[in-house]
Amino acid sequence: MSPVAFPTHRAAVLYGPKDIRIEDRLVWPPQYDQVQVAVKSTGLCGSDLHYYTDGRNGDFAVQSPLVLGHEAAGVVVSVGPGVKHLVPGQRVAIEAGVMCRQCDYCRSGRYNLCKSLWFASSAKTIPHHDGTLQDRMNHPSHVLHPLPDNCSFEVAALAEPLSVLIHASRRANLQRGQRVLVFGVGSIGILACALAKSYGAAQVAAVDINQQRLNFAKSNGFASRTYCLPAVDRAKTTDEQLRRARENVQRVLADFGTPDGYDIVFECTGAESCIQMSIYAAVTGGKVMLVGMGSRNVMLPLSAAALREVDIQGSFRYANTYPTALSLLSSGKLQNVEELVTHRLRLHETARAFDLLARGRDEQGNMVMKIMIAP
């Protein structure tokens, strides 16, 4: 008796720094509680880019061939045994993190801190779990979320980065009428601005070193005020670095007409200098929300925070955010959010897409913000 012939599909597989190969792979049927999804749209993000350029993301190095991608949506192709709530043809967003659902963190609703959580496209766990830069993938049913009818696959793929900001906003207790400052207007920073505006923030301001991105943020209504920090040489001492941070913030706040500072500061760069500035930029009694991942060890002006009761909070990924994210994305409350997608390429162009993302501009000089990959 001849073996069963399984169909094949294509995947963009990372073997090492800047070594992505398009391969044909077997499509295995979904197992118990799994769903097979035809991936229709994947957004590229900064962690993907680190893996592509360096073969690692922070402490996590690629040990074996890995499929990147975790901002995605698609269509259910088939369901495995035990799946009752999803059917073939249904459109879904793919939540890439898979939690154990048994530990104290999971039971308390903080499954993003689950010690057994694995994340598709991350090299943290061995063996690695492949991400969404492939035609089809099998994924646990409980982390697949039905799409509203008016939500496109591209917009649904933004639910993952938006979830990062929803989680951060919940931790910061973002309220209507507060003043919000965002450091860094990449796609995460833009979504921070958009979310704050949808919550009814009294003012949303943004700071970056890239004038083109600031222009994008302002022209599309994400931020009402922007400030471009000048490029300067690295400070030689810690005292000089903190002095610069304080003086830069004084100029920013004066320019924005908010000398007392901001109620919530979303730090979306991970750069040490911006983290320092965030503390000085927060109002007395305000909050600094650390969203960006960058510098591993940072010198902080803790006395400036402690004496003014500025809370410094960390935020890691998200938990229980996807329904809210998809509802927001389909509601029209995040005005112009679809403008985040500046470039669209196909799966076989994945390496070129990463090169574009690394440069930040395309061949015509246009800004690269969010790239979507289609099958």
Structure description:
There is one protein chain. The protein is an alpha/beta fold and 375 residues long. The chain contains eleven helices and 20 strands. The chain has helices at residues 46-54, 104-107, 153-157, 159-172, 187-198, 211-219, 238-256, 272-281, 302-306, 322-331, 350-359; strands at residues 8-16, 19-26, 34-43, 56-57, 60-61, 66-67, 71-79, 91-94, 97-98, 118-119, 136-140, 144-146, 179-183, 203-208, 225-228, 262-267, 282-290, 311-314, 341-346, 370-374. The strands form five sheets. Strands 3, 7, 8, 11, 12, 19 and 20 form a seven-stranded mixed beta sheet that branches. It has a six-stranded parallel beta sheet with strand order 15-14-13-16-17-18, with helices on both faces. It has a three-stranded antiparallel beta sheet with strand order 2-1-6, with helices on one face. Strand 16, helix 8 (272-281) and strand 17 form a beta-alpha-beta unit. Helix 4 packs across helix 10 (322-331). The radius of gyration is 21 Å and the shape is globular. The model has no long low-confidence stretch (mean pLDDT 95).
Which structural traits does this protein have?
alpha/beta, 29% helix, 11 helices, 7-stranded mixed β-sheet, 27% strand, 375 residues
Largest sheet: 7 strands, mixed
Report mean pLDDT, rounded to a whole number: 95
Number of strands: 20
Q: What is the SS-derived class? A: alpha/beta
The share of residues in helices is 25-40%
Residue stretches low in confidence (pLDDT < 50, at least 5 long) are none
Backbone shape? globular
Distance between the termini: 35 Å
- Work out the radius of gyration: 21 Å
Secondary structure tally, helices: 11
Beta content: 25-35%
